[in-house]
Amino acid sequence: MPAPDYSVELELGEPAEQLLEHARLHCGEDDSTRLQAIYELRDIIYERGECDPHRMDDEFLIRFLRARNFIPQRAHRLMVNYYRFKQENSELFEDVYPLKLRHVGDSNVIAVPPYHDQNGRRLLIYRIGCWDPKAVPIDDLFRATILAMELGMLEQRNQILGGLAIFDLADIGTQQAWQITPSIANKIVRLLVSCSPATTHAIHIINHSWLFDKMYNMFKPLLNSTMRSKIFFHGYDVKSLHQHIHPDHLPERYGGVWPDYSYTIWLDSLKNNYAVAKEMISCGYKFHEEELSPEVVKRLKEDDVRLS
Fold it and tell me: Which residue ranges does UniProt annotate as crossing the membrane (predicted)?
């Protein structure tokens, strides 16, 4: 069943009261101390000089505070790790044109569905068995993942609730396994655990075989107890997955009701979304003028925003 077209409809406005209540209960966010925490984080950044953020506004800083239970010292350490990761892996961030990642979508390795789970969290689905490392270099998988995480951070919903990842390992073979070296494993863990304000609520592993068990041994020493508690193994049992994510919020291939959505469709929808394009450019991403709709290009130029 082919997936219908859809647009990226990020919730860029203020979160609903229900989400703010969740933030109070689970993120340590409090109306009476929110501004104080932001000011304290900003002061720490200036005083220690360990990183040079490209933004210092409240909206940006609060992403890091929410990811670390509104403890300014921990939020600062996360921010330092965030910029250090970007510096140490500059090849993943420099001269990245999002719409040039179409081959990742065409390969069906990554999907970002337009729907949420039953608790309002976004999903990121990986079908590793579809990955041909000769056609899609592993760096492009990182670039596509980082782009999805940066987009997700534009939504306060995601800052508060975190996201879910599903790793489908059906048909995985040695050509994929050989790509996961110790240094790559370390980079994956740093990205998911300690170097991004995009928090991971849970990771679900499905259709995994003995080959993955060998690969997972490489990750185990890198994971703390908190992260290990967020990883769920389901074997080939979709009903086990359903205990965490309701079938109404899953693709048909996992016993759900939705068609497969391509990462390519998601990329294409950026062409007509002025707010998203502007935010992506502020993060360092680039676009060719012909890649965007004339209206989006016109508005960007009116705002003196350079596309590349």
Answer: none
